Amino acid sequence: MIIVIGGGPAGRMAAVRLASAGKDVTLLERRALGGQCVHDGCMLVCGLNDVARSIRNTEFLRGCGVIEGSVGVRYPEVMRRLEEVQARLSQILERETVEAGVKVEYGVTAEVRDGRVVVDGVVREAEAVVVACGAEMFVPDVPGAGLRGTYTARTIRSMPALPKRMAIVGGGISAAEFAYIFSAFGVEVLLFARHELLSVLPERMQKAVRRDLSSVAVYEHHALEAVLGEDAVCGVVAGGERFACDAVLFATGMRPSSPHVSGVLKREDGSIVVNERMETSVPGVYACGDVTGAPYFTPVSRLQGFAAADAILGSPRTVDLSRVPFTVVLGLDYTVCPCAGEEGVTFSSPNIAGPGSVWHVSDGSVGTMELTVAPESGKVVGFASSGPGTGVVGTYLGYLVRRGVTVHEFSPMLEVHPISDGLYSMIRFAEGHLRKE
Ligand SMILES: Cc1cc2nc3c(=O)[nH]c(=O)nc-3n(C[C@H](O)[C@H](O)[C@H](O)COP(=O)(O)OP(=O)(O)OC[C@H]3O[C@@H](n4cnc5c(N)ncnc54)[C@H](O)[C@@H]3O)c2cc1C
């Protein structure tokens, strides 16, 4: 029997693949299938962002004079309905997992001690173990961090009502996404970043991000020093200044969740060290997903889950983490596929008018397309695009970039029309320019 610990994207993919290959697989999960992605992360942010964008789009179109009336958010109802959706997603995942032949045990906090799985003090024999315990929210160790009124993405659903003023702490993707959401919900949001906000995005995109976050008070280079309050939050100290607020949301990163795993080699942050076959330092024990450290993305976890299963099945695959595309979802999608150190010429232009952007031609906020191309070969080495739905384009273009596709191969493409992504015109422009050169 093979034991998989954790039913998030990594563990579930590993379990399903192993069971589909005829292995006897038991998945141990302490909570519900879907992990952080379904319950505290991607789906939570998607659900809230859909509501936030609807509000902002309605306000924008009212400003254009084409619709009338106002919209407001029914926050407790949003959270209640979202929980129903998340439970439904979990059920769908459960059906898929069980139908693949995986036995799922819930409410189990498993331990791994020197390569053996222990549940409630009893050893479970297994021919291989896959550790996919994910990561926990990291909360900085500052005074007041545990006061009533402080939240993380994991606990935000327990916030009973919208606060008047919320401090969001963090300078990364989640901090920006929550700032967009809660400001659209009518909360006065103060965002405190230790360094620059969203430094993962290319400079050109920063301006558009600021537009999306125009109603957020952004304080960069303001490290959080304390949360203030007796019993509940009444303010924060950041960058040496005091700010009043009645809720604090920590979006300060994640830490691998490995306290239940001992005997394997770990880094200082608790991440489990694996080789390219997802093998840990203990033979027969594999690890995949967030528990092995950054980057903390669902598709990476899924691929690592497959890789762990394939290694157990005797046909190992390598997971290439050199160019992991990602999206920041605000008013627009901001999608980036980093260049991974390869040099190139960067072409950029505004994105185009199409679904989701045509009304924004009036204020110029249609987003941008940026393509980096190796001049000799014409190989696309990276890109960054902002606009409606650029995450979809990024998924497929990211794959082609990893495959080494050139603008010359790309140029006969037939685009769908209308779309709001200017990739095709940028590719043709880049191709024409390189030919001339
Ligand atoms: C706010 C937020 C937004 C995010 N947005 C995105 C996004 O837009 N795109 C993206 O790609 N990624 C996003 N992520 C990251 C994504 O959710 C994670 O990378 C992904 O869920 C990791 O999958 P995993 O299987 O490695 O771990 P997890 O999803 O954390 O799953 C681990 C599972 O193991 C279980 N478990 C842990 N320990 C034990 C134990 N000892 N015994 C039994 N069960 C155990 C847990 O209950 C959990 O179900 C976001 C994360 C957050 C917090």
From TrEMBL:
List the keywords (alphabetical): FAD, Flavoprotein
Please report the stretch or stretches of sequence annotated as the FAD/NAD(P)-binding domain: 2-305
Q: Which SUPFAM superfamilies match?
A: FAD/NAD(P)-binding domain, FAD/NAD-linked reductases, dimerisation (C-terminal) domain
* Highest taxon listed in the record's lineage: Archaea
- Signal peptide region: none
Under PANTHER family, the record lists:
MERCURIC REDUCTASE (PTHR43014)
- Name of the protein this chain belongs to: FAD-dependent oxidoreductase
> Whose protein is this, by species?
Methanocorpusculum petauri
